[in-house]
Fold each of these.
Amino acid sequence: MTAPHVPSLPPKERLILDLLIANGPLFGLQLVAMSDGALKRGTVYVTLGRMEAKGFVRSEQEVMPPGAIGLPRRVYYPTPLGERVMRAWSRLASELLPEMQS
Amino acid sequence: MTTFTPNRQPGERLVKLATWLFDEPTRSTFVLPALADFQQELRVAGESPGRRLTAYVRGYAAFARLVVAAPFIVPSAPMGGPVTTFVVGKHGGNLLLVLALALFAAIRPLFGWFAVAVVGLGVMLAIVLRVWNNHHADSRATAADPLLSLLAVALFAAIWSMFGWFVLAAVGGGVVMAVALRRWNTRHPTKYPPASDRAMPGAEINLSSIPVAGDFGGLLFVIGAIVTVLLGLPDIRWFVLASVVAGAVLAGVLFLWRSPRTATFVPANSILRR
């Protein structure tokens, strides 16, 4: 019998969830700036797209003020599932950490 | 220096280029947000030439990174743009075809018509495999095995006249290696989930799909393959040596890049722990 599929949480996705939960909704560029080089401009959206497909984050298009020009940015929010996955991950990591370090 | 006007905005050319390179979902999910960031950085930079230059460099670099990386890291999406579809093809098939043709062009002087025969045989088997997989989509993970065995037998039969007893030695060595790998894996079971528990994106002849990562058996397999090729083709020893050096450098870079992120989750039987 195969185990039920559990969504994975790679380090970059963990970092993004961590930043979103700690700081609230953020633009991609803000995530890059807060990551201390761990996230790159451009490819951060590939990670965010994957997380959106998994249901960890959701996004909305920025509401542009009247008369504003340029492309609207996307703002990202953590979903309740994303927050639960992050909590579960933190619990798992804190339980396993002593064994992994020994 | 480009300024924001209702007629022309920075990044407009990149938006047009993106419509040629990417399909709509990829464009709206990955590319346009990156270009929106580029425009935002330019807005924040104001009229300062230095800051505007930095924003331009960062914006174009981000776009270039997306163009290079997207076909490999975005699942199934980025092949829809007209140019990308032509260059890359479905699942990178066109690139692989070009690579295969270049490889056969390189070995053609070495093997003569034998290379052409192998190409023909390979094409026929690829068509058979594709047709078979299309008709047996539900069980394709295991169903291709007999055909792959047939491919191996056909290849050994084809090269028999050239290499003679070396072929038998290679087959015997391969069987011994397979038994050794099986014994090793039985004694040191992997900590990775079995293949049946992982999502299988579809059967393809793709070495990267062979789950040998982290196993000592994987290292043995690679060394065995290199030694076998060198015994059969001693003329390419310098090419193999250069490949090994380049591979070692790439592996080192990947290891350094990944180690801070994955160090705590290396399986107990990984090569890294030996």
Amino acid sequence: MKFGLFYEISIPRPWTPEKERTVYNNCLEQVKLADELGFDHVWAVEHHFLEEYSHCSAPELFLTACAVLTKRIQVGHGIVVCVPEFNHPIKIAERTATLDLLSGGRLHVGTGRSATWTELGGFGANPDTTKKSWDEFVRCLPRMWMQETFSYQGEFWSMPERTILPKPYQKPHPPMWVAVTSPGTEIDAADRGLGSLGLSFAGFEEQEKKIKEYRRRIQSCEPVGAFVNEQVATTNFLFCHEDEKTGVEMGKKLGNTFNYLATQLISTREVYSSPSYQSLGLLPALRRAATGPDAGEQQTEGMAYGDPARIIRAVKKWEALGVDCINFILNANEVVPQDQVMASLRLFAKEVMPHFARKSGQVAAAAGE
Amino acid sequence: MPLYGSLDITQSPARLPTLANLDTEAWTLPRAETMQLLIEVPRTTTESLLPKAMHPALPSYVALAVTKYPESPVGPFNLAVLRLGSRAGAHPRGFLLGAVASSPAAAEALRTRWGFPVEAGEVKFLRRHDRITGTARKDGRTILDCALVDPQPVAGSDVQYINWVTAANAPLDGQTQPMLIQVDPKYTFYKAERGKPQVSAFDAAAWHAPNVTLADPIIGTCCTVDTDLPRIRFVMDPLKPVFQGTRRIRESRADE
């Protein structure tokens, strides 16, 4: 089992330059500690215009800062939007290769297509074609990284022969993932040999079905890259406290706040009728869970909050279902004070991590501080 | 946390429709044809139109809809409505700003049974080979002239209709008072099309949205559906956040 951090970078109103800077600095401080504690990944989303929910519109810059501040933790684009109005594929290849170099080969590249009208409409993108452009991009990126020269004639973009520079540090290229929120995207991931970067908060039963199907399909995949990245990651909330009641209460506050903010987003399906967006993605589950920012009762099962014993039980269950990595959301709208986020990370590393087989096997002395 | 609307409907209760009770019987509305155009509008023009209990949709958008109901308990009628995209707590809703019904009987029933801010006028729904048009006239003036241009077939499952919220006076706990009422029709799709929204006339003031200017079209749909106007199930305190001020009036329908 691997553990990661997952950043939306949620910032409450009223926004001031100092507040936005403080939240970014809090995140960097958490990442630095997580690196010392032996966490495996830090992921950062690419979102645009999503007020309060996510102010992480330039994740490559945030992740560069993470890479520079840390030694071991791997940095992940979670995800790069593979829609031409958002990102030109050449720029994606160049940016990611640069980040891989700066991080010393610690980059993971998550891919996706955006799920909100707020973002797609903001960039003037056509929702009907985002899945197709994503498919085209993920097939081009490995070749752009690996080939000395590259040329391409496609439906969504084309280029004459050029040398795309720099090349990634990792050979043949960084591991590739796809964001899985809508039902069926895990199949898209498996068929292309991509890691499944789960961003929804579905319960055990639904996740188990998805994981089984992913594992089955990926056995016969035709990978878009030079290798198959068979990994299943899921997202969770983390708040670890010595006292179970305190941990659950704060964890619920975190989860409810995140969910409530997420339900305010305008899904593409809400306003743009398209066969390409038949699912509302993660929103139905969040709306069931988020009766309000102070909702007390409804919670999705398997959440990683409470005391260490409770969290160990939840993580063991995810491990038994076949999850390879859990990425934790640590805060939303800064409802968890920074000192408590840091204490939660330390306690998790000290009391929970040792119960799980880990490749790095490192729990640094910082956990005991 | 998310922004809230700034409209206090308790300050002008006389302007709201009034229901005699919350025991409205459901209407079945078979084979309705409904054209809905979604259009983004500047946020500053909608802030004062949304009740304090609700969150605005970001970006702000409105839904202009013209519907032909060939059968109803008050006979055939057409209805044009303007709804503001919003949130009741975690749920997407269309807050009803204004409506025009083509028959006085329909206008009276919709106003007094569900609390729609509806007036009688002239509403037309026309299908041409390259477009579907909707017009509404009130007091001799055209207040809406719109079209769905170049309709192309899509699946009914591609279309999502969100539930409505309207502001009205209704008796609750022995007192008639302003409240928000949720109206949540069901839809069975027979045919669905989508196309480009086009609006050639829109008198914002006539829709009780005087500052709204239509900015960026999103998409238009036209669907043939079996639908209904159901019994009222939820009412909301207009001044409290919806997640704190919602009351269930009756249980959900048997088919839910």
